[in-house]
Amino acid sequence: MTVHIGPLGVEHAGEVLTVQKAAYVSEAKRYAMWELPPLTETLDEIRRHIESGQPAIGAWDGHRLVGSVRGKADGERMEVARLSVAPDMGGRGTGRRLLEAVTGAAPAGVRVVWLFTGGDSVQSLWLYESAGFTRVDERQDDFGIRVTLEKKAI
Questions:
Q1: pLDDT tens for residues 75-119?
Q2: Distance from C-alpha of 115 to C-alpha of 72, rounded to nearest angstrom
Q3: CA nearest 27: which of 126, 94, 114, 117?
Q4: Are 139 and 116 within 8 A, CB to CB?
Q5: pLDDT tens across 115-128, in order?
Q6: Domain coordinates of the chain in residue numbers?
Q7: What architecture (CATH level 2) is domain 3-152?
Q8: Closest by Cα among 52, 138, 125, 32 to 83
Q9: Of 17, 47, 93, 115, which residue is 20 to 30 A from 37 by alpha carbon distance?
Q10: DSSP track, 100-146
């Protein structure tokens, strides 16, 4: 089946939470850090983000939500947050398509799209760099080395 990319509605919030938690368990294990924000975010917080009008994009395989990503615009910059792909759907290009969709959904006036990940998240770093993001900062935080990447908005 072909994965369809499109906007999330508030009715998808529960599915977003499920996919997000499943996707970030491997990161929590990697860093031995179960308090990662994608794992502690609540259903109400996800609903509020979707209702806010900020970019919120989903990926569906038929009727099943298999991935999501959200943007948080602030002036000329937009953070790409909570990129999540169901573990059984990894390696099929869904993450890349979600990155492209959220970058394309940046509000008018956004010039830079940025994100961060852990320095030990080799697959994530590869995905982001192959999608045109460039490392702009590396620093130690509570989770280890935090790498910030950015690219020009479309």
A1: 999 999 999 999 999 889 999 999 999 999 999 999 999 998 887
A2: 10
A3: 117
A4: no
A5: 988 877 888 889 99
A6: 3-152
A7: 3-Layer(aba) Sandwich (3.40)
A8: 125
A9: 93
A10: HHHHHTPPTT--EEEEEEETT-HHHHHHHHHTT-EEEEEEEETTEEE
